[in-house]
Amino acid sequence: MKLIIKKNYEEMCAEAAKTIKEQLDHKKDTTLGLATGSTPEGVYKELIKYYKNGEIDFSQVRTFNLDEYIGLSKENINSFNYFMNDKLFDHINIDKKNIHIPNCDGKNIEEFCRNYDKMIEDSGGIDLQIVGVGQNGHIAFNEPANQLSFGTTIVELAENTIEINSRFFDSIEDVPKKAITMGMGTIMQAEKIIWIANGKGKSKVVEKFLSEKTITTEFPVSILKLHKDLTIIVDEQACSSLGR
Ligand code: GLP
């Protein structure tokens, strides 16, 4: 496990984007696991900058996103499909057929979940997975619980997640109650994981992760401790709960 502390959000994003660029320099047909949320937004901005400067090529890259709300169409501005196109894919030379984001439009979501893991496997697995974290320690939409799914699955969102994510919606009633998420097993199978966290809001989670020795499904991010190649990139504010 490697911990990198950067001064602020911009530097944290630059560091994460640099790691992604190095991965693509090393393997042009990399499979990336991507995340949504306000944390990775700045990382995507940096990647777009690299692309516009001719320093990065996405033409052979494949992507798999972590999660998506159930009940929002792909065109809905709060869907993760919309977010990814708007914040990254519409601005780079990625081949649209190489983009995979959980799709909840279909009738058989269970079957979609099984196929999603198979698609990841068939693409040779995820080389580099980016994750953010929820204030309750959730990874993707793997919410704290007494057991977690290994593979991609349908989940009920925690009250706390609905409340926090309602900042993007007109009202809390509009926040979907269910989602599709990659399971912790799928995430842990990635070759390399980068966990990014910034701001005071994440300081309790970062502190709990670094100070507690236990691994528990009640604090899903703790499972990342078992990964063989985990890099944590945080800003100073996200470390503000840590003692010296
Ligand atoms: C969402 C996503 C997660 C994300 C988390 C934190 O609910 N499902 O993948 O890591 O919230 O989001 P933010 O980066 O906006 O704090």
Helix fraction, binned, reads 25-40%
What is the CA-based Rg, rounded? Answer: 17 Å
* Strand order within the widest beta sheet: 1-10-9-6-2-3-5
Shape: globular
Given the helix and strand composition, which structural class is it?
alpha/beta
Distance between the termini: 19 Å
What are the secondary-structure elements, in order, as H or E? Answer: EHEHEEHEHEEHEHEHE
Oligomer: single chain
Question: Largest beta sheet, briefly?
Answer: 7 strands, parallel
Determine the mean pLDDT. 96
What small molecules does the structure contain?
2-amino-2-deoxy-6-O-phosphono-alpha-D-glucopyranose
Beta-strand content bin: 15-25%
Contiguous helical run count: 7
Low-confidence stretches: none
Number of separate strands: 10
Summarize the structure.
By secondary structure, the protein is of the alpha/beta class.
List keywords for this structure.
single chain; 244 residues; alpha/beta; seven-stranded parallel sheet; three-stranded antiparallel sheet; 10 strands; binds 2-amino-2-deoxy-6-O-phosphono-alpha-D-glucopyranose
Tell me what the structure shows.
The protein is globular and about 45 Å long. It contains 7 helices and 10 strands. It is an alpha/beta fold. Helix 1 (9-26) packs across helix 2 (38-52). The longest helix is centred in the first third of the chain and has 18 residues, at 9-26. Helix content is 31%, strand content 17%. The two termini are 19 Å apart. The protein has a 7-stranded parallel beta sheet with strand order 1-10-9-6-2-3-5, covered by helices on one side. The mean pLDDT is 96. The chain binds 2-amino-2-deoxy-6-O-phosphono-alpha-D-glucopyranose. The site of 2-amino-2-deoxy-6-O-phosphono-alpha-D-glucopyranose has 14 residues, from helix 2 and helix 5. Residues 35-39, 66-67, 132-134, 140-141, 161, 165 line the site of 2-amino-2-deoxy-6-O-phosphono-alpha-D-glucopyranose.
